Structure formats: structure tokens, C-alpha cells
């Protein structure tokens, strides 16, 4: 009896077919008292457990795992069961009937896999939306940069036009691209390896920060460091934070060498936060810059409103990647230190 059962179980496992398995299991239950169940994990794998009570009361359990995959038409295929383990069961599951148990388990497995497919479709849709929004953001950055270059160069790079040209290139263009380097939905860098993204990030940040700091200093020297407007106060705050951000960026770049003094996680989290705040202040200052006399004299009110909308879109869409990165870092800090 033992040999017959063992041969039957091995033959079922090596020639596993989902369509005939139910019928075989039901027929087997008529000759020997057997109970079968199917357990579905999160990733669609199934565990087939056949527990049989032999005539002498001894329990034999056959356990095997198989990977289940779902196609786009919601049909399911199963790989051949490759591992067989015969052992005495830890527990014996009593069910009203083999057929009802197997049917309910397969139904639950099907529903779970459909749910996973729906979640995957939702995530893919969100990624597509993020790519689309990033394209819009790149257009906004390009439009602002091209227009400001044309306006400042056509009027001559003197006084305010020099200041506007430098801070636009530094903050609105180079720094915006720098903080999006590690963003997975950035159409310009999404397929680059992480080391390349890091190199592009710090190069753009050094160039952008340098131009932004220079442009702010030019205006401060012209004004004698007399800062009275909202635009001037925000710009000077961005200037100060940009200096600290570049220092923190240098520490983050060599975080592994400094880990005996400061945790790399805390180091990079602080740099992420400081850089994001600097960028927000810089673009907010540029928003109020469109209300200054330089633009009032050279542009119409409707065009200034358009430029304000564009700079706000750039600010919001460029901050999506850094905000997501900051959120994950903060969650890791909370997990490791609280």
C-alpha cells in the first residue's frame, strides 16, 4: 500500500496537469482517505499539499512548490513541480470534502493574482503619467531658459540683465536638472547607471550653484547689500543656503569615507532636504522677480503672468523626484533611529 501510494504521488507530481489534477485527486479520495489543499503566496506560487491517512493510521505528506504566471488574457500556466518532500505532517487539516477545498483554494489563488495584475497596471499607469509630466517640465525649463537668454543677451549683459541671466542659468536650468538626475521618471537620465547619475548631479550642481551665487552677488554689490523687496530677500536666502548645500553635497559625495563621523543615511538625508529648500527658495525668488521693474518695462502683463505660471510648474514638477527620495530617506531614518 505504501509503495503504491508513493508511486502514484510521484507520477502525479512529475506529470502535473492543472486540468486533470482535480479529477485525479477526487478519484484518489475514493480509495484512500486523502485531503488536498492549495496555498497561494503573494507572488503567485502555489504549494500543493497532499495528506493521506493510510490503513494503519500513519500520515504521509507530499509537499511541492510551483510558480504560477499570469498572461495578459488572465490565463494561468504552471511549471512542472520540481521538488518532492515526503515527511510526516505537522498538522492535519480536516475539510468537508476534497473537491470543495481544492476549488476554493484555486479560486482564491485566481483572485489574488488578478489583484496583483491590477496593482501592476495601476503602477504602470502612474509611471507613464510621471514620464508625461516630466516631459512638460523639460519643456517649461527649456522655454524659460531660451527666453531669458534671448531677453538678457538682446539688452546687453549689464546690471540687472546680467543678474537675471546668471541666476536663470544657475537655478532655473542647471540646478533644476541636477536635482532631477536621480529621479526614475526623468526622461534624460532614467537609463543611466547610478554612478553616472551621481557624476552628472554634482557637476550640474557645482556649475548651477556657482552661476547662481555669482548672479546674486552681482546684484547685491549693485544694491550695496540693501535688500528691501520680497524678491531680494528670497534670493539672498537662496544664496546663503546654496553655499551650505554645496558643502553638504561634498560631504554626501564622500559619505562612505566620513561614515565613522556621520552616518551616510543622515548625511544624504540632510543634503537632500537642504538642496530641495534651496531650489524652492530660488525659484520662488524668480517668481517674484517677474514683478520687478526690469520685466515690467520690457514685457506685457499677460506675458508676465505666463512666465509666473511656467516657473511655478517648473518648481512643482522638478520637486517631485527629490520629495519622493526625501520621503524614503526619512522613513529609513525613522526605522533605524526611532
TrEMBL record:
Residues 132-326 form the Cytochrome b561 domain. GO terms for molecular function: metal ion binding; transmembrane ascorbate ferrireductase activity; transmembrane monodehydroascorbate reductase activity. Signal peptide: none annotated. The chain crosses the membrane at residues 131-150, 162-181, 202-228, 234-253, 273-290, 305-327. Its main location: membrane. It comes from the Eukaryota. Its cofactor is heme b. This is ascorbate ferrireductase (transmembrane). It is a multi-pass membrane protein. InterPro entries: CYB561D1/2, Cyt_b561/ferric_Rdtase_TM.
Amino acid at each position: 500500500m505504501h509503495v503504491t501510494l508513493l508511486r502514484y504521488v510521484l507520477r502525479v507530481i512529475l506529470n502535473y496537469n492543472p486540468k486533470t489534477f482535480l479529477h485525479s485527486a477526487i478519484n484518489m479520495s475514493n480509495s484512500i482517505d486523502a485531503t488536498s489543499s492549495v496555498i497561494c503566496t503573494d507572488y503567485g506560487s502555489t504549494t500543493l499539499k497532499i495528506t493521506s491517512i493510510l490503513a494503519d493510521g500513519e500520515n504521509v505528506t507530499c509537499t511541492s512548490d510551483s510558480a504560477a504566471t499570469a498572461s495578459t488574457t488572465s490565463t494561468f500556466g504552471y511549471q512542472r513541480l520540481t521538488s518532492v518532500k515526503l515527511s510526516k505532517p505537522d498538522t492535519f487539516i480536516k475539510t468537508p470534502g476534497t473537491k470543495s477545498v481544492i476549488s476554493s483554494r484555486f479560486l482564491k489563488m485566481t483572485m489574488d493574482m488578478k489583484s496583483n495584475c491590477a496593482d501592476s497596471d495601476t503602477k504602470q499607469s502612474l509611471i507613464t503619467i510621471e514620464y508625461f509630466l516630466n516631459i512638460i517640465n523639460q519643456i517649461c525649463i527649456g522655454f524659460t531658459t531660451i527666453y531669458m537668454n534671448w531677453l538678457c543677451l538682446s539688452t546687453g549683459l549689464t546690471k540687472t540683465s546680467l543678474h537675471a541671466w546668471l541666476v536663470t542659468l544657475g537655478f532655473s536650468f542647471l540646478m533644476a536638472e541636477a536635482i532631477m538626475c536621480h529621479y526614475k521618471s526623468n526622461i534624460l537620465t532614467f537609463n543611466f547607471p547610478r554612478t553616472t547619475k551621481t557624476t552628472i548631479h554634482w557637476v550640474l550642481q557645482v556649475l548651477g550653484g556657482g552661476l547662481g551665487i555669482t548672479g546674486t552677488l552681482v546684484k547685491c554689490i549693485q544694491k550695496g547689500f540693501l535688500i528691501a523687496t520680497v524678491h531680494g530677500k528670497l534670493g539672498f536666502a537662496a544664496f546663503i543656503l546654496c553655499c551650505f548645500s554645496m558643502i553638504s553635497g561634498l560631504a554626501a559625495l564622500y559619505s562612505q569615507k566620513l561614515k565613522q563621523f556621520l552616518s551616510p543615511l543622515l548625511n544624504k538625508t540632510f543634503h537632500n532636504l537642504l538642496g530641495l529648500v534651496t531650489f524652492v527658495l530660488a525659484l520662488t525668488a524668480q517668481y517674484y522677480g517677474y514683478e520687478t521693474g526690469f520685466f515690467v518695462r520690457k514685457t506685457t502683463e499677460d506675458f508676465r503672468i505666463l512666465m509666473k505660471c511656467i516657473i511655478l510648474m517648473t518648481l512643482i514638477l522638478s520637486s517631485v523626484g527629490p520629495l519622493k527620495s526625501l520621503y524614503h530617506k526619512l522613513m529609513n531614518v525613522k526605522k533605524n533611529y526611532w
